[in-house]
Design goal:
single chain, signal, globular, mainly beta, 9-stranded antiparallel sheet
Amino acid sequence: MGKFLAPTVCLCLYSAVSLGACDDSFVAKVRRNFGYADGRNEWSEFVACKQYPPFEGKSIVAIAKRQAGTAIGDSETMGDYNLDIALVDNRTATVLKHAFFKRRFLSDGYRFDGIEIDTANYAVAPNLRAFGIRANFHIDLGFTSSQTLSLVIPSGKTFREVLSNADMNIIFTRNWPSCRNETREATRTLAISNQVTHGYFDLIVRETLVDTRERGDVKKTDECVSSVEHKETKTYILRFNGRHYVVPVNMREFDCRIC
């Protein structure tokens, strides 16, 4: 395929601030509208709420709740999590659109750390804007964590995903004694291209991969100093196949190197 030179719209930053209606009483009303009992276990249920600019006076509410009977061992946050997503009226807490995704997040090796709503302007098609659901995971061995991004669009009275579980941040750390820790981190940002496939704009993911290593400070023997040993960049193109965006194999098969 030829070199890709299409203009892009960068979506490198997203706001993490929830405003206005997304207080505890508002979320409690929405939970009741979903049929959940009052009271929330912070380890088995994660809530995100954020006002949604394209719909004035409306908010997006997302609830990831562990499915009964799927807890793994004595872990407080491992198991299968269902996901509710709703567009909600800020004044009345009335649910205007709703989608339920069964076993949406499967946490059988990594601990599930919750979700965030990303309302950057993901204009995936003319007159069609998606929003993002970011999911966070970690594992206790060393310090390993990841964040995935899914894109969701309105569809009548419900929502549907057009991108599922694209890894956007990955960190692997190997912990050694005596200032020898090694870390590999991949940070990815998403941009919208003006190239179109099956009616949807292509997505461009740019990756920065950094390897760092700790060494003892020769001047201060009790301190560790980190230095970058390797840095590279990559670009991936995600195209719509008529149902959803396809994540390339080489983007999914991340080489952690230090695992």
